[in-house]
Every structure is written in C-alpha cells, then in structure tokens.
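anyone seen this seq b4? input:
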Amino acid sequence: MAVGIIIVSHSRPLAIAAKEFALGMLHDHSDVNIEIAAGIFNNGKWLTGTDATLIADTITNAATADGLVVLMDIGSSVMSAEMALELIEPTVAHSITLCAAPLVEGLVTAVVSASTGASRQEVAKSATQSLLTKQHALSQSTSINKEDVDEVSSSPLANDTATLPIDTQLKAVDTPSHNDYYEDSDVFYREITLEDPHGMHARPAAALSSSLQKLNAHVEVSNPRAEKNNLPADSMIQLLMLDAVFADKLVFRAWGAQAAQALDTAEKVLASFAMTAQQTPMSNAAAVSTHKKSNTIDTSSTNHPISHTHLQQDPLLISDDNIVIGTAYWRHTSINTTDYTPAKDANEELARFQQAIHMVKKFILQQANELSEQHEKDPAESPSTSNEHNDSATVLQAQATLLRDTPLWKPVLRSIRHGKNAIEETSAHIGHIAQQFDALTDPYLRQRAHDVRSVGLLIQAALVCIATEADFERMVTREFAAQKPEGNCVLLMERLSVLHASRLQPDDYQGIILVHGSATSHAVLIARGRGIPIICAGEDALGVKNGQMVAFDPRHNNYDFDLTTDAALHSWHQRQNTRKAENTKAAQQRFLPATAANGTRVHVMCNITSLHDAALGRAAGAEGSGLVRTESLFSSWKNAPDIDEQADVFTQIVNELDAPITVRLWDCGADKPLAFMSQNAELNPFLGVRGIRLLRRYPHLLVNQLRAGLRAAKESAHEIYMMVPMVTFPGEMKLVHEALQQARKLEGDNLSKIRLPLGMMIEVPAAAVNIKDFSGLTDFVSFGTNDLSQYVLAADRMNEDVWPASSFHKKYPMDKPVLTMIRQAALQCDVPINVCGDMASNLTFIPELLDCGITRLSSRPTMVPLIKQKVREHSRD
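predicted toks r here
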C-alpha cells in the first residue's frame, strides 16, 4: 500500500478541490489514499478553521504501515496538526510526517511520488522540493532553495520526519536530550539587546513565540543577567520567565534548516517593540500633522479633553473609602474536582484536555470582546469605567494567549498521553508555572502568576463540565462571576482574578476581603476603580466562616472579623455613620477655603495624571495641582512630543482645572520608562538613573519642556510652575536653571519675561537633610513621600512582602523618620513647601503634616474635600 496523504486546510471546499486536482494528475490512483481534515463542523455546517480533534481522528482512521504525510495550508493549521499528534497513539504518531511544503504544489508532487511506491521520507522531500520548479520558471530567488531542502533531508534529525520543523519532529516521541538532536547540526548564536522599555512583557513574548513556531528550527534563549538559561523561545510563558528588562542582552541559539532565519526573525520581532530613537523635532506643518496622528495622549481612554460636566458620579461620595459591614460570604478560587472521573482511555483524556482548552479560550475571548465593545460603544460612560473595561479586556486577551502557547502545555499533554489524570496534571503544572512567576524580580511580571492561576482554574472547571456533561458557562458564572447572594454580603476570596474584578459591580457586595493580593495588582486596581472597597487581610481572613459578621475600614486598612457582640457591631455602625457624615459635610463645603482652627490657610490641590483627573479635581474643589505627571500624559508616545504639543496639553489641563498647576519635568526611569528616553539596564533601577539624572543625558528634551512651559504660561489664565524630580545635589538645580535661560533665549523677547517658577522635588534623603544648600536655587520644594518613604525605610513600595509593614494605611512608628525629615526640612526652608505623595492623601497624617508647618497639600482628586475638612478641624497645639 502507498504512503497515505492528509490535507489539513482552513477551507473544506479548497481541500476537496485540491484533492480532485491532484488525483487528476494520475491515470490510476487506486493505490493513493488522500484524506481530508479541513474546516470546523458546527451546528450542521462546515465553517472556516482547523480542528485538532478532527485531524487526529482522520490520521488515526487513515493510518497505514507505510505511514502518512500531512500537508497543511497556513497559520494555525500547523499548530492544529501539531496538537493532533499529541492526541493520537505514540505508535501512530511516530509514523507521521508533517510537511511544510506548499499545499497545492506539494500535494500534486506528493501524490505522484506516492503512486510510484516511494517511501514516506521520499514523498515528503519531493513535496518540499515542489516549489523549486515554480521558482526556476519565474527565474527569481526566494527563501526556499535546493540547498535548504537537502540540508533538511540530510540532517541527523531527518530520519522519519524529514520535513518537520525540529520541534514538531520531536512531538512523535518523548523529547531527547539536547545533544541527541543537534550534535552534528550547525548551531547559530546571536546576542540581541532588549530595547523595549517595558522589557519582555506579554506582547513581544507572544509575537516572538508565535513567529518562531512557524519556522523549521529549534531556538533557545538565555538571559545571563538573570541567570535564566536555555529556555525554549517558541513558548510565550518561557519568554516571560526570562525576567528580562530593558537593555538586557539576550543570547539566542538556534539549529535546524531555518536556524539563521529564526535568529533574523527574533531580531526583527524584538526590534519592532524597541524604543524609537530620539529624533529632531519636526518643523514643517506636514511633519507635525503626521507626528500627531502617530501618538495619543493618555486621557483615560479618551482622545479629547474631558469636561467636568461629563462626570456622572459625585466625586465626593467615595464608595471605595466607605466603611463596610456585612455577612461574610466565601467564594473560594478553586474548583471542586471530586466529581471528576478520568477517562479510561488516554486518547479520550487527551481529547478532553484539548476540548477544555478550546472552551476556556472561547469563554475568555468572549468576555474580552464584551468589555471591548462596551468600551467602544458607550462614550458617555465615565472615563475611569471606560478605561477599566479596556484594561480588563487587554488582560483577558493576554490570558487567552497563554492558552495558545502550545509549548506551555507540552508537559501536560505528554503526561496525559502516558495515562495521567488531566485535572491533576493541569493543577500541578499551573502551580509550578505560577511559582516561577512569583519568584521573578519584576513586579509587573510577578502579577502574571495571577493570570496563570486563573487560566488553570478555568481549565479545571471545563474538564469537570466535560466529564459530567455540565454547562461550562453556567458553572463559570456561578464560580467566578461573584453573583450577589441575599443580604448585605462581604465577599472573601483567597485571590482576586481579573476575570472576577472585571465582572463585579459596586452593588454586588458591600466590599471585598482578600487573603493574598497587592495594591498594585491589576485586579485590585480594577475593583477599586469600580468603587468597591477592598482590603488585603492576609491569613487573618482564613479563619472567617460563611455567615459570620465582619467589618473593615479601607481607609485605615483595619478590620474586625469577630463581631459576636452587639456592642462591637454597634461601634462599627457608629463609625460607618460617622464616615458617611464626613463625606456629606465635605461634599457640601468642598469649594470653601481650607483654614485651620488657628487661622492657618492651607491650599489643597490635586495630583494629575490625565485630563480626567483635572476635571475630577475641579469638581472636587481642588485649588490647583501640586503635581502634573508629564511622563504619564505622554507614556504611550513613541516619539517625544514637540514644544507646541506639550504646551497645548498643559494649557488644556489649566483650563480644565481652572487653577494653577505644577508641571513635573520628565520623571522616567525604574518603573516609569518612556519610549523616547533610552536607558541601560540597572541592577537596582530605583537607586539608579531616574528623573533629573536621566534628563541630564537629554538636554534638548529638558530645554523643550521648559519652552513648552513658557508658551503655556503665556496663554494660560493661571500660573504654571515647573518642578524638577529626583534632585540630590545643588548642581542639578543649577543645570536646570541654565536650561531655563537657554529656553528663554530660544523663545525670544516675547517670552523672555514670562514668569515660570522653578521648584524641586524632595524624594532623596540627602536633599532633605541638606536643604539649606539649595537656598536661592529653588522657588519652592515639594516632598514626594512615596519615593522618600521607601528610601528612608529601605522598603520597596511595590513589594507586598515588605511594604505593608511600613504602609501609611497603618500608623506604625516606622513612619516617624519620614515625618521627622519633613519637619526638620521645613524648619530650615525659606520657600513654600508642598507635600504631593500618598501621605498627603491619607487623613491620618494631615494633622501631623500641618504641625510640621506644611501649608500646601496635593492629593488624589477624590480626597480633596475630605482633606479640606480635616484641615478645618485641626487645632495645632
């Protein structure tokens, strides 16, 4: 019997036509068996797409002693065929060759070759060579040539699967050691510097892995700095495990027929995510127009200024600040798998797993699409909610990408094929991967552990539903959507996933208590952005039982999980009523000045990250902005905004807020990269080149931003201040003064006399203790307590393991050194002092800051009314 041929195509009509065309080339084709595994059969119709289960069944039914050659058309057909090999018996898979030849030409030559009694290797080789005839006829060079084909066929890897990509060849058997499959092959090496400012995050990892999976080569990558060696580069999850940050030098090695091409591909893919080199500001109108079209200002998911009249929710009723009292209701982030019975046959268990992957991917993408559509079709919704919808959809799409990461699931597939339980293998593998993410140094990448665990739970849910014939979507809705039970309930969870957070509504629960979590996680930020009070209580929450009365205060991060007496419950209700009264009183007086009992006038301003913040600040009664984060306004721009673009944004913010603003000069570095400011990798970036230290390398950007400030100051009805970040030495302020003089000179006589006060941020302890050395060099100072605190306390504020111990949400003695530093600096300072960090947004510290002599506070916009009220109530001893 001749070698059999399988056609894998997205289009069933195309596959049928190709088969008829190929068979028409033979006079007698009775000995050539061609089977079709094309399309997806759904609801009685054949749809466009590929189905690994269909391919596996077709291969199993068509298997012969001489083996099969599988020809595929494009894209995911290759991945589906590879997955199909995992779903069939190893003895059958070993006799299969996946052929990368062009479908039509390859099929014709394969049929002719098979009809002559050629071996499987010869049939696959002739199919691969089929394009050479057309290439020769066209007299043009392509990437496929005879030498490439001969290299594949003569490789020690060729054996029974000559035309397979290296990784695909190994799918028929267990993976041997590296030496087994490249001992005699040429190994190519290349060092590629990672120039994406965000490092190896999900998008470049997904793009790189999917590109390499299409090539006939095996590629590994190492990150020497992080001591991550020889990870498979065709796996998105393994690329994330590199723990690679900006400027890391990644070492790629590749072998196989397309090894060199694979390295070229890696370089091109990573280059597409790299930072665009700083370019000379465009001068002509056409260039400026083009530049503007390629960039968008971060305006909380809008592309236009946001008027405060668009705000739908009273900014003073701060729902995520409310005191919560309710009945505990646990929703454990785990799946009850006791009803799951593994299939008796390993192939059936494999089919279940593949079906579960498909079900979960479909469900997650459906959720992402719903959120994206809601984000796009409802422009009237509040900008913050719109932004949450968009962020949630993005994270869910990233989770769906994990499901497409074929190499990620190889260990699970292999174990199931050898008779293991799909649920147990999924749980163990997901746990292992999540622990690897937990160990990474980058806070953003550590959060991916939550995504991995969420995907794993959904797969387990799908497997249970397949085995019990239950409805998957109904189960997931019940287990993950956090539907509200009867009564005023407080939701308790071990972890909050993005999927949970994106489906929660403010009226679903009184609040949420988590065992594990971080204030910086996507899920927590989404929940708080939706107005849901939430705290992370650690292991204390584990002792809470369903139905138990609990209470917590998100403002101070304290709680009571033992409300067993009427007195305790009454106390919390009193606190709750007091909090509501505070909010109401603050709302009524938000536009009044904040004057302390001793007559001290305190200016309460807001921090601004977007135009929406400016609108919210105005509605909340802010008297200006003590901090405009320019690096956030332009964080998505590939090229530096020109002078007029910056000036226009500054003017819009002034007009929206209708009050003076303080513009912080570019403050990038560490966790705040900007695409148009290149940085080298640093072992400790928070102690490295940040703020003014980086600006010194870009004097033209510094001068341009000061020129933008001058232009905006001329056009604005309110004063504009400029502030220098991360100042340590007086020489840095002198450098900025020189840049301001240059900016005035370049702007000419019409702006040379414009007032532009220049201040400094105190984030470095050295600047605080040596404040006298800056006399005459600064018009004002502003304490950035976020960074100052972590430097004083040696506690990374992004690290949940150390930061809670020094959190400003709890009044620990560890905070005293920070307050002492502010008090001592204030006594020695001869210019106005502002505090613009988290300490200025925490009502606990307002009296102490006032006692230090601080008369200017800049907080989150929604906290402005409450801070004003706190000032009025303060009487200095």
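The mean pLDDT is 76. The first helix runs from residue 12 to 23. kinda curious what u guys think
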